[in-house]
Model the fold of this input.
Amino acid sequence: MLIEAPRAPMRVELTVNGEARAVEIEPRTSLLDCLREHLLLTGAHAGCEHGMCGACTVLVDGAPTRSCLMFAVQADGYAITTIEGLAPGPGELSPIQDAFCETHGMQCGYCTPAMILTAHALLADNPAPTRAQIVDAISANFCRCTGYAQIVEAIALAAERMRGLNQPVREP
Amino acid sequence: MKPAPFEYARPADLDQACAMLAAGDEARVIAGGQSLVPLMAMRLARPKRLIDIARISDLAFVRREYDGIAIGATTRQCVLERDASIGAVLPLLAKVMPFVGHAATRSRGTIGGSLANADPAAEISLVAVTLGATLVYRQGEASAEIAASGFFLSPMMTALPPTACLTAARFPFWRDARIGVGFREVSARRCDFAFASAAAQIALDEEGLCRRVVLGIGAVTPCPLRLDAVATALEGRRAEETVVRESVRAALADIEPLSDLHASADYRRRAATSVAVRAVVDAYRSAESAHAG
Done:
């Protein structure tokens, strides 16, 4: 039986949701486990833990990234955004989160944080995505409940609303 | 799904990385980790030490050389995908980039990582073999290179020595005026591992006949396979579908396709025939519509 002794922890300084956080972790700890177990940010979900399902998606420098496929020791210096970092203030929701609530873009909720972060990156890059572009963007995130229709609808609704923001109000 | 314990080192430059690799210790290079980490999670790989080269800036580049384009090993796939100059000089690579994993893996995954981990279904490896790329590596203080055709040995196995670090891939540049490319793959889900894939690049002469043809198939055999017999059969002719199909069938008659739970050997052979024919026809049509001169 192969039981290997754990390796000495390493100190890693991470920037998570704009805050500097230092952790002492074993090199084999994934960014996902670091976020969940060391920083108690449990919005990133562990699904398959080998890069297929997408439930652990977070943003690394704004780009959707599998947090199960990145070791925390690799992540210092990058800006990491989790679902906990999207709401503008306590008790509030981002426009994308709002849209997911309104269109029922979730059932069990397991894939939802990753879906929302993926949508966030898509809309930051492309404020007016076509349906095909939305489908393509979330194609790497598995949802086993909704059949995706309401998720696509939620992202389209959020896009429409966010395009409306910061537009001059027209006088009647 | 937790990897076995390992030590982690992040060398400052390539010299230091190569010195660490030369020390042995069952070390492996990691960059984006998008192929290696799943293998570690399933404990199919158990390196004792990871040497992280992702931040060595000398290894991330796209450089025009006199007869080709050199791409640094740690150049991330998302960078290549967004680099408009790739489409102009390496249209086949540009064509396959959106099919490499998916956006959330291309954000970290590198071109060198995809090549060095040698998944039989990897699109970048298929392009390297199809175009006849050269892979450049450092071992200790010596640089060496190896043709893509001799690089891939079997699934996840390459000719790269265990203490070497892949540093770049050099792709040949076609100067022909009328070039077209084609790429097709069959997979269960968008951007999942392909069951069969095919990539083709064709250059036409002034009369619209094939001057140069390359065709390769991926995910079907243990390593990407170039079908030179098809290329030879088409040179000096028009790539009519019936002609292409006949020569692809003949070329695939003797291969031994992979077989697994998802796709049998027979299925892979049939799918490979279809995607190869379509890739060639696509390449021919896009070359026909390309501006001469």
